[in-house]
């Protein structure tokens, strides 16, 4: 795959949390709405690198062809789950980096969880409701402080 093909596929993702450097989404499995190039690449890497299902979010980097597998344990149950582990794969060089966040004092946490899900996902509205409540309370105004405000 070329960098242009990768970027075109990432741009074609029908949902996901879009940030300046990446698009994040729940692992789509075999969702036919996800560009095949990304779906097949993620599945093949999972198999080859033995990346388990606990790595439930995918991060498609936009600056270069990299794919991160992120383990946010209890994603569906905890309002703001903390990142437990990550596996980053450089799709050009094949270089792999694994990081464990479980012992870190302030690991990244998730907010606005509905943005990671397709609109028809059963938990989309529940998570969107939580986001609306947090916005109304002013909890999401200062993104630099979100982890301090929402992590228990």
Structural class: alpha+beta
Report the order of strands and helices: HEEHEEEEHH
Which geometry do the CA atoms define? globular
Profile the largest sheet. 6 strands, antiparallel
Distance between the termini: 42 Å
The fraction of residues assigned to DSSP E strands is: 15-25%
Mean pLDDT: 86
Summed up, the helix count is 4
The domain tally reads 1
Please bin the fraction of helical residues.
25-40%
How many strand elements? 6
Uncertain residue ranges: 147-152
Provide the spatial order of strands within the biggest beta sheet: 1-2-3-4-5-6
- What's the alpha carbon Rg, rounded to whole Å? 15 Å
Task: Describe, in plain words, how this protein is organized in 3D.
- The structure is a single chain.
- The protein is of the alpha+beta class.
- It has one domain (3-150).
- 27% of the residues lie in helices and 22% in strands.
- It contains 4 helices and 6 strands.
- A 6-stranded antiparallel sheet has the order 1-2-3-4-5-6, with no helix packed on it.
- The longest helix has 14 residues, at 36-49.
- The radius of gyration is 15 Å and the shape is globular.
């Amino acid at each position: 795959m070329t960098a242009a093909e990768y970027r075109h596929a990432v741009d074609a993702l029908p949902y996901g949390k879009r940030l300046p450097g990446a698009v994040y989404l729940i692992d789509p499995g075999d969702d036919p709405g996800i560009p095949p190039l990304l779906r097949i690449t993620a599945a093949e890497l999972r198999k080859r690198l033995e990346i388990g299902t606990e790595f439930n979010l995918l991060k498609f980097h936009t600056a270069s062809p990299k794919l991160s597998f992120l383990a946010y344990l209890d994603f569906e149950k905890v309002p703001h789950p903390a990142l437990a582990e990550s596996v980053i794969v450089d799709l050009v060089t094949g270089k792999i980096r694994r990081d464990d966040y479980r012992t870190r004092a302030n690991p990244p946490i998730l907010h606005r969880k509905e943005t990671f899900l397709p609109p028809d996902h059963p938990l989309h509205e529940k998570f969107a409701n939580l986001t609306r409540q947090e916005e109304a309370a002013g909890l999401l105004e200062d993104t630099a402080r979100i982890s301090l405000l929402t992590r228990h």
